[in-house]
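Lab notes, practical 5.
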Amino acid sequence: MNIIDIINKSKKAQELSEEEIFWLVNGFTKGDIPDYQMSAWLMAVCLNGLTEKETFALTSAMRDSGDTLKLNIPFTADKHSTGGVGDKTSLIIGPVVAACGVCVAKMSGRGLGHTGGTIDKLESIDGYRTDLSLDEFESVLKETGFSIISQTGELCPADKKMYALRNATGTVDSIPLICASIMSKKLATNTNCLVLDVKYGSGAFMKNKSDAEKLAKLMEKVGKSAGKKCKAVVTDMDSPLGRNIGNALEVREAVEILQGRSKGKLYDICIELAADMLELAGKGNNGECRRMAEEAVSSGKALDILRRTIKLHGGNEKICDDTSLLPQPQLKYEIRATKDMEILGFNCEELGMTSVLLGAGRLNKNDKIDMSAGIVMNCEIGDHLNADDIIMTLYSTVCSDFSDAAVRALNAVKFKITEKPSYT
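Output from the prediction step:
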């Protein structure tokens, strides 16, 4: 085999064999195939796509490029989201599913750009360690049934190299490549059942529902082809998921959901996804699993799981009873309606980038984060606001001048004026 033949076949939309794909991924991971040749192949895939058979083979090759997780636990479940603004669902769903008797073992990443990372959110809790050893990870799982740790470098090294190259060569937006990137990491964790939350809209990577549905269908097929119980659901990200955007702010909102103090769209999505995980795990039909999930919240069992897990990770578990113990911002700025208005929609990506301006995210992987920073939305789509009502509140400790962030945040709100004209 040689790389030129493989590039030419993909350039002509000719199907590669499983052996050719494994040879390609293995050679690139070891450094035998240089970046410029892999870039040419990635561009050919972006232009011509891959068949399902090729996608399955690519995912398997990337999964097998490094270690696979081997836990001494008979059954585990996981949930993956393709990313969004204000998405703190893992912090809610994990304890809910664990409280219903299904072990949730999860590895997550950090945020980059307008989407937040679950690991960053957890590290806003004082003392919380996400870099547990695999032995420590397993110990927490056996104790509480729920744990989230940061991804290890030994899993899917091919994906790490390929993603960096895709990011630098404009070859990110390919459904087969996105699918292989996500699913190789998920399959490497060896979970038994997996729910995939594929988002679309202004705050998601997939901007339209049709593309999200194609990605969801392909990811589900890849999961099932690997022998996993797998279900993909498509949800919208045209509004922030919940009212809070930013690390400590999102942990606060997750705790409030588990305390039973807050309901709405975020609660409903979490219950739906938790029910899907429980159904895949054989806990009953979807209706029965939904009731189990709701009872896990209302009884306080899920909150107790979160409390115990935080403690075992070295964090301050008292935040589950007093969220004021989370990092508190020193500065705030209220954006108010200047006239009576109806909220028509949001540009979620712009809201996410506003939170980055405030210090809540990073544009480069080494940027430091202000854990207290972020946005609290005071309205939802369809709300009618009177003049001087608060649209949203911006928070920060490191950003003393809110002018740029305020302009960007207001421009992200779509509204129409409903103020009645005055007659003289």
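Observations recorded by the TA: The longest strand covers residues 193-200. The mean pLDDT is 93.
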